[in-house]
Amino acid sequence: KKGDRIRIRYLNEGLMIHPMHLHGMYQLVIAKDGAKLPAPYFADTLNIAPGERYDVIVDCLETGAWAFHCHILSHAESAHGMFGMVTALVIK
Question: 19 pLDDT exceeds 80?
């Protein structure tokens, strides 16, 4: 819902880096590999390397359906549309 604050945990179990991007809002990076960061920072796109885990906080300030995807576009779209590493964050 609008006004909610959510935590997203990224875990890359693959063999490639994935630059994760959430349209329309920044992600507050608060932890890496289970350890809280001494200085959390905002990121538009966060590179998740193989074996890494990140926790981020997102403030849901605007209603709508927001694309949430890997910024290596072949991981998230094809000639037939969106697939793979893409979803939507829906804020009502």
Answer: yes
CA angle centred on 33, ends 24 and 3, rounded to 5°: 30
Give phi and psi for 75, each to the nearest 5.
-85, -10
Distances (CA, A) of 43 to 28, 29, 84: 6, 7, 22
Question: Helix, strand, or coil here: 75?
Answer: helix
Q: Are 70 and 84 in contact (CB under 8 A)?
A: yes
DSSP code, position 50: T
Whether this prediction's pTM lies above 0.90 is answered by: no
**Residues with Cβ < 8 Å from 49, sequence gap 6 or more?**
12, 17
- State the Cα–Cα distance between residues 22 and 89, nearest whole angstrom: 8
**pLDDT tens for residues 56-88?**
999 999 999 998 888 887 776 777 777 677 888
